[in-house]
Design a protein that fits this description.
This protein is α+β, with helices and mostly antiparallel strands. 14% of the residues lie in helices and 24% in strands.
Length: 245
């Protein structure tokens, strides 16, 4: 009979071998194709495609490409020249600061007299709100005085009153209503115990009136007469401790 003369069993083995070879070839081609795509995962008895991935970012912005997170600012400024024009406000954060403008007799005090000086304080245009507390006087830095033993310093008294009316006059009447007394006592110890509020962006102003006096009967060391105070000078400096709300 024409055709293959191989026994049927041999022919079947040949076909199975050819089929196995073809399957291995197809499987190998799939592996190559998957590997070329970068998503081949081999595990267990089969092949698994990995998930697609993506990444998204956001940032804290202000809507115009700039930073959107930051801090507020707190800054107080002062003016020692009534009637406190806007151009006269400035910031002086170190001792001695600006010079208060005491009345003309400030360097000619005698027992029983006083001198007066105002200062206005407010927040700057870009500041948040806060509070002021007046501290006790300390010697003005860099100012030479004639009071080596602090005799005059210890004899002087101070009173301080405050008001929000920038047109109010700083004189002896400043210690009556509607002013508010904030400090009174010996020059080096008198300090405020109550804070005064400041609105944000300079929307309110606190005006302080300082009265420095030489009492008619000042406190002096034993054996010292009031005449020992003649020709002396003092330069007190006051700090306003400001804190934001």
């Amino acid at each position: 009979m024409a055709g293959s003369t191989a026994p049927p069993r041999a022919r079947n083995r040949g076909r199975r071998a050819a089929d196995d070879t073809a399957r291995r070839s197809r499987r190998r081609n799939r592996v190559f194709a998957l590997a070329a795509g970068g998503v081949l995962v081999i595990g267990g008895a089969g092949y698994t495609l990995a998930s697609w991935t993506d990444t998204e970012w956001v940032f804290g912005g202000n809507g115009s490409g700039g930073p959107g997170v930051g801090t507020s600012g707190f800054e107080v400024e002062q003016n020692v020249t009534a009637p406190f024009a806007a151009a006269g406000f400035t910031s002086d954060e170190t001792n001695p600061g600006q010079a208060l403008r005491f009345t003309v007799d400030a360097l000619a005090l005698s027992p029983g007299t006083a001198t007066y000086a105002p200062v206005a304080l407010r927040t700057t245009a870009d500041s948040i709100a806060g509070d002021l507390v007046l501290r006790a006087a300390v010697p003005a830095s860099g100012v030479t005085v004639s009071d080596a033993d602090d005799l005059l310093w210890n004899a002087l008294q101070v009173r301080v009153a405050a008001i929000t009316d920038t047109t109010a006059v700083c004189d002896a009447t400043a210690f009556d209503v509607p002013w508010t007394s904030v400090a009174s006592g010996p020059l080096g110890t008198a300090a405020a115990t109550i804070a005064r509020p400041l609105a944000a962006a300079g929307e309110s102003t606190q005006v302080y009136c300082f009265e420095v006096s030489l009492p008619a009967s000042p406190t002096l060391p034993a054996g010292t007469t009031v005449d020992a105070l003649q020709g002396r000078t003092a330069a007190p400096a006051w700090r306003f401790a400001a804190e934001s709300d």
